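Review box. Two proteins, two foldings.
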Amino acid sequence: MSSPLGVLLMAYGSPATLEDVGAYYTHIRGGRAPSAENVEHLRERYRRIGGRSPLLEITRAQAAGVERALLARGVGARSYVGMKHAPPFIAEAVAAMAADGVSRAVAIALAPQYSRMSVGSYHAAATEAAAAHGITIRCVDSWHDHAGFVAALAARLDQARSRLGAATGVIFTAHSLPERIRSWNDPYADQLRDTSERVAAAAGVAPWRFAYQSASQTGEPWLGPDLLDALRDVHGAGWRDVVVCPVGFVADHLEVLYDIDVEARQLATDLGLRLERAASLNDGADFIAVLADLARRSAAP
C-alpha cells in the first residue's frame, strides 16, 4: 500500500499567549532580543484583538479541509501545519510527516504572491527538513492568479461592497516588504498588481487603488504607499466610503484584525470615511477547493 501524500500548509505563526510575545518577537529577529518597550508595544496590539491571534486554529482548519477535499477526489492525503516563527515549526511538521510514513509531499505557503524574502524562506525551510527525512517534496511557488482564488476574493469583496453601496471605492492591500527586493527582480509587486486587477475585473470594481500595510520599522525603506496614507489620499479625492480588500492574506490574524480592523478603521472614522473590510478566506469551502487543487496538481507525476 502506497504512503499517503503529505500536504504541508505553512504560515507565519503567532504567539500562543501574551507571555509568548517576547520569544516570538525574538525569533522573528533571528535570535536578537527586542527592547522591552517594543515587546510591550506588540503585546498591546494582541490585547486589542482579544489577547491572541486565531491564525493557528484557522490554518489547522484549512489543513483538515484540504485533507477532506482531496479524499473526496480520490486522493489519499494527510495534511500538516508548519509555522515559520512559532510552534509547530515547519521542521516539526516535516518530522511528523516522516513519523507517519509519508515519503512524498506538497508544500504550500499560505501567501499567494511569491517573494524570495517571504515564500522563498518557507520553501527553504521545508526543503531542508524534507531532505533530512528522505521525503520528496514539491513547493508551490505562486498561485496569485488561480481562478478559484480570484473568484473567492471577488465574492467577499462583493459582500463587503453591498454593505456600503455598489459605487464604493476599494483599496487592495498586502504586507509590505523592504524596497530592496526590487533589485532582485522579485515578482512580488507585479503579482500583487495582477491579483488586484483580476479581482477588480471579476467584481466589476471602480475606482480602486492598491496599498501596502504592516511595514516594520527596520531603518530601511519599505514598499509603499502605506494603507494609512492611501486612506488620507482617497478622502482628499472625495471618497466617502471604502472597502479594504487584503489580497495578500488568506486568514484572520494580527495584520488583519489590528492593522485594518483597529488602526485603519480608526483613521477612517477620524477622516469621516465609512470603512468595511472584505472578509478573510479562512476555511471557506471555496478557498479549501483552491488549496486542494494546488496540492493535487502539484502532486501529479
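Next protein.
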Amino acid sequence: MDMRYLENVVTLELDQEKCTGCGLCVQVCPQEVFVMEGKRAAMADRDACMECGACAMNCRAEAISVRAGVGCASGIIKGFIRGTEPTCDCSSGNDSCC
C-alpha cells in the first residue's frame, strides 16, 4: 500500500550538487522517497516523505534538509487530534504546520 500524505507541503529538500552518492538516504528512508540515479540520489516521490528526518541525519554531505515533525506530518496529527481534515498550507505562511 502506497502511503500518501498532503501534496506539495513537505519540507524535504535535496541538493544533488552536494550529494556524494553514498546511498544512505535510500537505505534509511522508510517511505522509499529516494532512489539512486547514476552516482547521485534523487527523489522518486517527494510527497511520500513523512518528515521523520532519518535521511538528513544520515547525510554526511549535508545534501538533504527536512524540518522533522512539521509540515505534512504535523497537519495530519493536528487534524486527527481536532477531529478535522488534515490541512497544511505552507504557502500562506501558516506557522501552525510549517
